[in-house]
Amino acid sequence: MHLPPLDVAVFPIVTMSYGYNGNYNNNNGSSLPPISSISTAPSYYAVSSPSQLQYHNQISTPTPIYPPDAPEFSSVQELARRTLRDRRAALHQVERLSGQFHRLYLLNLHDGRRMVLKCLPASTIRLMRHEQHSLETESTVLEFITRNTGVPVPAPLIYDGSNHPGSSSSSRQHQRGESTSSPSALTRASGSSSTNPLNAPFLLRSFLPGTPLSSCAARLLPATRAHIDRTIGLHLSALSNLRARGFGPARRVFAGRGAATWREAFLSLLEAALRDAEDLLVSLPYGSVREWAQVAARAGVLDGVREACFVGLDFGCEPNVLVDEASGAVVGMLGAGNAVFGDPLMAAVWEGAPVDVWRGFGRQEAPVEGGVESVRMYSMYRAVVSVVAHYYRPRAEQAELEARRALTGALNQLASLQHIST
């Protein structure tokens, strides 16, 4: 019989929600991932309802379950000890965090320290092309942001890409402005599964306490909400000041394989999403999407972007912003696994963003409707991704209908632009 270490207290495993790092659906109604628990401990879990989407202290009555997809308790214990370099470190509790397709666990130690363990989704979950290396992207992006800005993001502790096809565990060169490179302080595995206690890719990062803005927005005073929105804008501005020499997905840019122009990079992103749709035979107006993308590109709609700015595509969306309700401070920004270098306006947060977010970003107001053609291109891209994501990870039918309406609206808006449609 397999028993946990004697110095480890075995407690029920529960789940909590942790914001949303998904595909542009800025609400709390995303489907929950498969529930799992630690197989060597008495196995329990609790699923938070959408109204309980808190980062902490929202735990309902546990229900027993014995799923096969969770890491061994002793393996997580060994990982914590290696990270802290303390052989006496002992886990007090492991909590399953819900709300996204990755398997996410909150590690509580006896001395009060906390860490977040992020693992690949269950093998039954199919990923879209831009999601396939999100763990590696997140580890590098978090390190990049931590070293170059004061934006509050989780600190990456260990990333191990062992057994992940195409992943890289070597250090990378990052740029800020002209060129800023620094040796990696992020602990990375050598790539050998023998040194990986979980025998699977994972990211271990610091814990940020706070409440998702999406869960507490209705309780905030107008002045507090305005302050939070301006702070979000300030953080987004700081991130957009991070520059690179190439355009496109952060993973490719960090590897020195970025595109020469934003037009090339964006069209490649859009084509990848369309091929994801074709893989599952999703019904979409492929011809119209590709045609308008090419027409707008030939008209120079994307050519005004000459600097490759860092863009966290999910940064700033309400479920990905952690706040301290008592002080109104923004204590965390989540969503680092989906990032590109290109036009800052491609981020999902700008669609319907409050004016105070724009002011914090450095603009007095949002772009005039119809004045920024590229924004309509980005709306089309987000709508395509949202529709396709529904077929990879089904959600409520209403979510797909809303995404399809958004896609139709974006195509109609592009068609209404006389200087690119004639």
TrEMBL record:
Residues 178-195 have a biased composition (Polar residues). InterPro entries: AGP_Transferase, Aminoglycoside_PTrfase, Kinase-like_dom_sf. This is Aminoglycoside phosphotransferase domain-containing protein. The lineage of its organism: Eukaryota, Fungi, Dikarya, Ascomycota, Pezizomycotina. It comes from the Eukaryota. SUPFAM superfamilies: Protein kinase-like (PK-like) (SSF56112). Residues 155-195 are annotated as: Disordered. Residues 98-345 form the Aminoglycoside phosphotransferase domain.
